[in-house]
Each structure stands twice: as structure tokens, then as C-alpha cells.
Design brief:
alpha+beta, Rossmann fold, Tumour Suppressor Smad4, 2 domains, seven-stranded mixed sheet, 20% helix
């Protein structure tokens, strides 16, 4: 390991001093810290010395051996997507500056102990399934994304209930009238899926969750399908007043038409997530969901 990427949530002033200190810690160990432009500006504001190496955020995964993220889960999700788009195979360490942080689970007092394990090769690394999402129309691909948590097909702000046709591995599954539909990875099961009444799925389970959002028919329940499944969702739009959108890890929004088809399957490469060695998965659930000890 020679080069370490450092990414902070945009305008996260609370992280500035930590960015500068992490850079110094790495340099003391003959490792090169590499910042994206916004994070470099924060580090400089806290007195980071010397000439900081800066690489555009989208290009960062191609230039480093692993990435430290300071922020909330949204910042980590964006970085995970960039790692996937770069076809990189580098681990990511999330440090929690948010309020919940299922993914950015390392706390501030744990930063350097976690960095030490990453640097010396003893880090506990989990592979998390990612989702390959495509939006097609007339045989042509209009958009493609690789996401860690979920893809959501949902109504617009002023829309009525929407209707969707769902198939799994070429077999028709259901027509659902609802506010929308969530297709989540096991990691994403504790995100929007959980809020919509879907199940919590352990990250080691090889499955995908299909969860209707406020379905018109109460027997439309969440379903867990094999991780190898290919899922197809098509909006059934009957008038000009309906608005339907696809969102990818809550980071991007794409309007859909009646001839658009959203397909979801397991991505070829998983995300490599560095875990806090002192904390197991169920302890994270207890802490984040305020379950009784």
C-alpha cells in the first residue's frame, strides 16, 4: 500500500482538522495522502502543510490503493459508485460524521486504529454485493449505474399512485399499484427498504429484496429473491399526468416513460468495506436502531 485517497463530505467543516491530521499520520508512515479538490481545500483550511496531491473525485479510485471517507452514508455511497465505475478493486473505510451511519460505522476515536489495520494488512474486510442497474428503451440502453444500496422506482411529487409490472428471471411476478418500488441489496436493506417495511437482510445473505412502497393492495408484500436473479420493472403509465422516476442510491434521478424498462442484477464486483474490528453486525444494528441491550 502506497497511496491513500481521502474524501470528506462537501463543506463538512467539522472534518477539516481530521483531514489534516490523517494526512500527517500517513506521511509519517511514508504513505501518500491523495485528496479530491473539496477535501483538499478543507484540509488546507485546518493548516495542512506542504503541497497536497489532488485528484478529481471521479478519478480518485484509479490513483489510490484504498479510500478513507469522512461523512455519512451518502458520502460513502457516492464513493462506492465511483469505485465501481472505475472498475477498481480497492477497499473503503467509512468514518461516521452523520447521525445514523450503517456504512460509515467507524467512530472518530477509532480512526487511527482502523487506519493501522488497513495499512498493515490486518483489517477486517467484508465484501458487499453491489447492483448493476440499466434503463433501456427500444433495445438501447439509456442509462446505467452500479449502486450499493438500492434502485427505487417512484412517483413524482404531485403524482397519483403508479402502476408497475415486475418480472424475475423472465417470469412475470406481479402488477403493483403503489407509491413506488424498492429493489435493495442486503446492505441496502437497512436504508429506504427498512423505512418502507421491508426486512433486514444480513450482508452475507445472497439475496435481493423487492419492496412495494405503500401498496394499494395490502397483500403486495416484500419478497426476497436469489442474488442471481435478474429483475425487470416497467412503469405502466396511462396518462400525461403521471410522473415516474428511477433513483440510484438516492444520488441520481431519471424520469421514466412507459417504454422504459429498468433491469437490476448483481454487479460483477462487490464493494470491499473495512469494518471496525471491535464491533459486529448485530452490535451495529443495536446501536443504530436503538434496540435494547
Amino acid at each position: 500500500m502506497r497511496r491513500v485517497g481521502i474524501v470528506a463530505k462537501a463543506r463538512l467543516e467539522r472534518a477539516a482538522s481530521h483531514l489534516a491530521q490523517i494526512a500527517s499520520w500517513l506521511e509519517e508512515r511514508n504513505l501518500a495522502p491523495v485528496f479530491d479538490p473539496d477535501s483538499a481545500a478543507l484540509a488546507r483550511s485546518a493548516g495542512a502543510n506542504g503541497r497536497l496531491e489532488v485528484v478529481e473525485r471521479d478519478e480518485l479510485p484509479r490513483h489510490v490503493d484504498f479510500i478513507v471517507v469522512l461523512g455519512g452514508d451518502g458520502t460513502l455511497l457516492g464513493t462506492a459508485g465511483r469505485i465501481a465505475q472505475a472498475n477498481a478493486d480497492i477497499p473503503i473505510l467509512g468514518v461516521n460524521f452523520g447521525s445514523l451511519g450503517f456504512l460509515t460505522e467507524v467512530t472518530l476515536p477509532e480512526i487511527y486504529a482502523s487506519l493501522e489495520t488497513a495499512v498493515n494488512g490486518t483489517a477486517q474486510i467484508e465484501e458487499r454485493m453491489m447492483l448493476q442497474v440499466a434503463v433501456n428503451a427500444g433495445g438501447a440502453q439509456l442509462a446505467g449505474r452500479i449502486v450499493l444500496n438500492d434502485v427505487v422506482v417512484t412517483q413524482g411529487a404531485l403524482s397519483r399512485i403508479i402502476e408497475l409490472s415486475v418480472s424475475v428471471d423472465g417470469e412475470f411476478m406481479m402488477r403493483v399499484k403503489a407509491d413506488g418500488l424498492i429493489i435493495a441489496s442486503p446492505t441496502g436493506s437497512t436504508a429506504y427498504n427498512l423505512s418502507a417495511g421491508g426486512p433486514i437482510v444480513h450482508p452475507q445473505v445472497d439475496g435481493l429484496t423487492i419492496t412495494p412502497i405503500a401498496p394499494h393492495t395490502l397483500t403486495n408484500r416484500p419478497v426476497v429473491v436469489p442474488g442471481s436473479s435478474h429483475i425487470r420493472v416497467q412503469p405502466l403509465i396511462h396518462d400525461d399526468q403521471s410522473e415516474v422516476f428511477a433513483t440510484f442510491d438516492g444520488q441520481a434521478l431519471l424520469p421514466l416513460r412507459s417504454d422504459h424498462v429498468v433491469t437490476v442484477r448483481r454487479a460483477q464486483k462487490p464493494l470491499r468495506l473495512i469494518r471496525a474490528s471491535a464491533r459486529g453486525y448485530f452490535q451495529v444494528l443495536r446501536e443504530k436502531l436503538k434496540w435494547g441491550g
